[in-house]
């Protein structure tokens, strides 16, 4: 049976305790009811469940798909959209109600997790903009060629290490706050520089660095001037620095002045080649991808996904 074009397909990705998730879902459903939104809601129970359910919504003909989650869930959604034919994708609008650990892409557009009412109102206006996606082409550990799209950023080095430490400590402590604090402490005794060779535009960067962030979006503060509609990515190369300067860097990151740090070298490019990256870990939109197996190329696919934005 054909789906009504006005009906939303909503994918809810819970992020905390069962009690908190239930209360949030009840609040969201009340907002939908007040605004007489016609929708079907499915809930993901795992990372792999997100991809499966997004494919199900696409295959069942929903023209408006709304992700209730963070950057990682949005990443899964855009990668599923890029699997379908362009003529199918052009008729689908993707929206987000921020409800993740990281909501950087939603914040870029002005969506606030605490204001569900305003977000739903903005989505109901159905104003779309065709956005760019970053495209990362690499070889996985099995030797197979892969392509992973991203909405926000790719991190190589220190930030991906922090993601890995946080994931491990989260299993140990359960608490998000405790895992973050313990990860920060462990980081003081962790390797914090990597030998990398990059080609950014026509320039070769061949040196030890702490982190490389390649952003189609704000990059969690590391590529604050990047926008997902100019056909380019911003690149921040963070070179090795002293411990006090490292703390200064985190302070500037949290206060929105990251590019002012003396150890940050910013670029803007249409293509970035990662020629070698030692044994550095890689994170894509908040999810740990692992280590690179050989070279990697990052480009931009222009205006390939219709995203619902506020007025």
Provide a concise account of the structure shown.
The chain has 311 residues and is an alpha+beta fold. It has 9 helices and 15 strands.
* Beta-strand percent range: 25-35%
Instruction: Give the biggest sheet.
Output: 15 strands, mixed
Count of individual beta strands? 15
Mean pLDDT: 86
Helix percent reads: 25-40%
Give the SSE order as H and E letters: EHEHEHHEHHEEEHHEEEHEEEEE
Radius of gyration: 20 Å
Form type: globular
The helix tally amounts to 9
- Indicate the low-confidence ranges by residue numbers: none
Distance between the termini: 33 Å
Structure, explained:
The protein has helices at residues 18-34, 47-59, 71-81, 86-89, 104-108, 116-125, 158-173, 176-187, 243-254, and strands spanning 8-12, 39-43, 64-69, 93-98, 128-139, 145-150, 153-157, 194-200, 203-215, 233-239, 264-269, 272-276, 281-284, 287-291, 296-308. It is of the alpha+beta class and 311 residues long. The chain has a 15-stranded mixed beta sheet that branches. Strand 13 (281-284) and strand 14 (287-291) form a beta hairpin. Helix 7 crosses helix 8 (176-187). The model has no long low-confidence stretch (mean pLDDT 86).
């Amino acid at each position: 049976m054909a789906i009504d074009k006005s009906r939303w397909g909503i994918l809810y990705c819970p992020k905390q305790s069962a009690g908190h998730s239930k209360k949030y879902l009840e609040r969201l459903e009340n907002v939908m009811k007040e605004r007489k939104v016609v929708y079907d809601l499915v809930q993901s129970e795992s990372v792999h469940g997100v991809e499966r359910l997004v494919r199900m919504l696409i295959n069942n003909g929903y023209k408006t798909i709304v992700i209730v989650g963070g950057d990682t869930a949005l990443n899964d959604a855009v990668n599923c959209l890029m699997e379908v034919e362009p003529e199918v994708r052009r008729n689908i609008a993707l929206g987000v109600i921020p409800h993740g650990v990281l909501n950087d892409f939603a914040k870029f557009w002005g969506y606030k997790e605490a204001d569900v009412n305003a977000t739903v109102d903005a989505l109901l206006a159905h104003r779309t903009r065709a956005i760019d996606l970053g495209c990362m082409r690499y070889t996985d550990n099995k030797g197979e060629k892969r392509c992973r799209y991203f909405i926000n950023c790719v991190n190589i080095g220190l930030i991906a290490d922090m993601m890995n430490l946080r994931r491990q400590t989260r299993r140990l402590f359960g608490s998000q706050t405790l895992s973050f604090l313990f990860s920060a402490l462990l980081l003081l005794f962790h390797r914090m520089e990597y030998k990398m060779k990059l080609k950014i535009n026509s320039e070769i960067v061949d040196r030890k660095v702490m982190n490389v962030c390649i952003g189609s979006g704000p990059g969690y503060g590391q590529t604050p001037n990047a926008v997902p509609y100019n056909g380019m990515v911003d690149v921040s190369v963070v070179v090795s620095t002293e411990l006090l300067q490292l703390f200064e860097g985190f302070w500037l990151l949290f206060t929105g002045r990251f590019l002012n740090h003396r150890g940050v070298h910013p670029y803007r490019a249409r293509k970035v080649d990662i020629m070698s990256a030692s044994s550095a870990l890689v994170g894509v939109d908040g999810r740990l991808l692992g280590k690179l197996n050989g070279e990697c190329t990052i480009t931009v696919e222009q205006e390939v996904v219709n995203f619902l934005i506020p007025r």
